[in-house]
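Weekly puzzle thread! Below is a chain. First person to post its structure in token form gets bragging rights.
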Amino acid sequence: MMLKNSVATFFFLFPVASWQTSLFAQATCFITVNQSQTINPAAKKLLGASFDGRSSMDYNPGAPVDPAGYFDPATGAILPAVGAAWKRMPIRGVRYPGNLEILNWNWSYTIGPFANRIAQPMGPGGTNSQALQFGFDEFMDTMTIGKGLPSDEVQIMVNLYPSVGQPDPAILAADWVEYCNAPNNGSNPRHGTDWAMLRNSYGHPNPYGIKIWNIGNEPWSPNELGNDAAGANAFIALAIPIIDSMLAADPTLHITVPAVGPGSSPWNSTLLASTSLMSRVYGFSSHAFYDEDTGTGNPSVSQVKVWLEDLAMAANAIGKKVISGDHAHYAPVNDPDKAMRWEGALATAEMLLMLSQISNVELANFWIYGNVKATWHPIRQNANGTYTFMAAAQLYEQFDSVFYDQSLSTAISNASGGGSVPNVRAAAFKSNDDSKASVLAINIDLAVDNELIPPTLAGFDLQGVKLMTAPGLSSDT
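Winning reply:
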């Protein structure tokens, strides 16, 4: 039952600040909310992020030290200049370790006393070989203690191929599962190294209880196995021994496998048809890098929506879930900041509202935090040594206060004809205790102004209206 003092907020994103002089709207749109239909019962999990495990890497080993990320290569402590920006970023879920997974990375080289940690490649072709001060346990402390994230909201990516020091990816993955999740009671589930006892000796007696584990990163890439049935079958052959080894260490895991495109893509349809694979997994992890430029060949958010809805429906038919493992606005080679500026933030806002309206998409992660040298860098390092909390990061900071627990079924119609409005997207949210609600809307068309009529929500009084905009699409903040 709705509480009498329940309040609602209307949050509107507009492309550029010139809206203030555009008094003559070209269309009037009605937002309607079905308060009885919850789409996602844990919508805040859509505000997750991926995190690069190289966050204490020295980008150019030697003197002077050139930190690649947020943490000091010499001490592992957070760099004071970036600390204020990182503190602002809310974390509602996190995926680790990012691209390290495809660089023959060995997680076990990042635990224990630093003097005992082994150097390994941090870049393609064996480049930037070094040991990391900010390893796996430090990462977990940062997320659980520093950010207040429950440890079971961490997601792990495991190697699909041989790694440094361990040619068998099944052993490497299962060792990691056991280190994370086995109780320190002498049970030693796989009867080899007692990883739980080792974890305890490093100051972490309690299991992390990490549930979601993804096999590989983007093995459907033409640089790996290829996005066709043959590539998918090759993946299945590689993945099943890894999965079996992991489940032997912890049979309660939620294992996801990479997906690409709609459910009917050659890769996805082959995985969906494999009963041996589907019987072992929790669901699919899909990636999306989108933009609004038809000349790039990248999908728009609307195209991603069609693909994800198709994949989510196919997965749901066999009892599987979908996660948006990584997503972000595309970063052009000649202007990667575009993905993090206001233009990219608008597209990401559209993506988040879209995801909140697909019932079988469980969580999502923005690509990527932790590495200011990476192509995607929502916290940017400036030439003078300062850091900028970019518009894409500010979007999450703002959304965190209005993305309530549950997303509700939301629709937009044109007042004149009643049809859909392709250039406006909206989503409604409410708290589990029914004390708060919000309606978020975004105008995604630079050429059309839209007058939005917010819905009336039964049991809620409109408390306020918030506007998020910027001086121009190229604004950093």
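Puzzle host: Confirmed. Bonus trivia for everyone else. Residues 7-41+407-468 form one domain.
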